[in-house]
Amino acid sequence: MVATQESKRIIKPEERAACIAGAVTFKEYKGILEETGFRDIKALDETDPINEEMMSRSLQVKSIARMAQKPS
User: Fold this and answer.
1) What per-residue string of b and e applies to 25-53 under the rule 16 or more CB within 10 Å gives b?
2) Residues 2, 61 contacting (CB under 8 angstroms)
3) What is the number of structural domains in the chain?
4) 50 secondary structure, DSSP code
5) What is the pLDDT of residue 41?
6) How confident is the model over 32-68, as pLDDT tens digits?
7) Which residues contact residue 52 at a Cβ distance below 8 angstroms, ignoring those fewer than 6 apart?
8) For residue 9, how far is the Cα from the chain centroid?
9) Domain span holding position 42
10) First and final CA of the chain: distance in angstroms?
11) Of 20, 45, 50, 55, whose CB neighbour count within 10 A is largest?
């Protein structure tokens, strides 16, 4: 799960209960992957059904699938 917006200070109780409070954006996540040595980060899928549910509940996160290589 990644955030669809920059971090916010006020966290809704349902966000905390759904374990999505504090999610980072994909840009931040990609930076973390790059800092730890992953390269060739590619988008695979953002069509998980949970995304529609998250948006309908006004939760600012989505499920993504990415692939990356870590050179040996």
Assistant:
1) bbeebbeeeeeeebeeeeeeeeeeeebee
2) yes
3) 1
4) H
5) 93
6) 999 999 999 998 888 888 888 888 877 778 888 889 9
7) none
8) 17
9) 2-69
10) 27
11) 20
